[in-house]
Amino acid sequence: MATKVRMKTPIVDMAGDEMARVIWDRVKDKLLEPYVSLKTAYYDLGLKKRDETDDQITIQAAEAIKKYAVGVKCATITPNAARVREYNLKRQWKSPNATIRAMLDGTVFREPILLKNVQPAVRFWKKPIIIGRHAYGDVYKNTERCIEGPCKAELVFTTKDGREIRKTIQEFEGPGIVQAVHNLDGSIKSFARTCFSYALDRKVPLWFATKDTISKTYDGYFKEAFEKIFLEEGFKEQFEKAGLEYFYTLIDDAVARVVRSEGGFLWACKNYDGDVMSDFVGSAYGSLGLLKSVLVSPTGCFEYEAAHGTVQKHYYRHLNGEETSTNSTAIIFAWAGALRKRGELDDIPELVEFAVKLEKAARHTIEVDGIMTGDLARISEPPASKVATTEEFIDSVASRLNDSCKASA
Ligand code: NAP
Ligand code: MG
Prior knowledge:
The chain is of the alpha/beta class. It is 44% helix and 21% strand.
């Protein structure tokens, strides 16, 4: 066997829960360790470990990403009341993704993996649409209230020196509702910078849209922040040099254009738009098992993951000794993304080449050999030649990868 690829700096390896964790271990075992002398900073973010460490393990993992700049994360359980009982937890711990995102001040980019035999529901789409979702504020940090009867609702701003400014929201004559939302200048600007940089990095045009004709101050602020950063921080020149466009339009116009487009751009979305549109775009491209995700911080840290969760239902079947057919493609691509970025940052061309081979092996297994898991077999055209179990699919990818690594050795 050819010598293994060596690494210089570790990748932060964050293990998780349930079926995703089962796949995680098998992917490392069958697809990575035979070819790469893996150097990792390992953090077990499985729910049990988070509970044991009072969730300090998640904070340590985020610190490690800041230190090493590249991480890869397995899906983790965000506990609800049922999980607190199931795992006998001390507390209903926060979502690790939210903790890591807040510590890195990052933006999440979601991108579908396109395959020849999985047609998007929108027949015009030929290239991926990447969604960049702002992950702070708006309706996710709102204050809201029911109005029982006649009253005046006001916004009151109190300055440090005690001055008050009031704005009337509505003079209610009967029952109703109110909501207040906010955002931060710093967060909006780092979102804009991260989107411009990511579009340049991926060599795709950037679209941004809000409803600034209606929300002249709030959405207008986002529009102006993007424009100002584009013009004043050198992005305009870099976009021109790369032959790329920054395109601003209204959100409803953007949606209409997205559906008629052939894809191949980054769509920067405000928090709520990104929440809705990433599910819409993701599912229209095929399966959750084909959706990649990367968290990018303004300081140049990258955390890769599959967009799907721990696939709980499949895991319970697995525990019962039943066969499962869970798609590992997005997890394989998450590792490939992390290895490629590590190779680029550390100037190790063999590591970048290996990442490319790994992606190709997974692609070849599905597109050429027609071997795929049940989620894809349901929508594949032409039909699958084999509907693989979770393990069989990874083993098939391993066999293709072995061939391609041998051929180039
Ligand atoms: P999920 O794990 O994404 O799974 C939802 C359903 O989507 C599955 O039951 C399955 O459908 C299908 N699916 C998802 N990934 C698939 C794959 N790789 N291959 C085949 N089918 C796949 O979402 P969930 O069941 O709502 O959440 C389970 C747990 O994951 C929760 O505890 C949640 O907190 C956590 N979660 C974590 C993250 C993260 O860490 N990034 C993200 C989301 C959710 P069928 O059952 O129809 O086959
Ligand atoms: Mg959503």
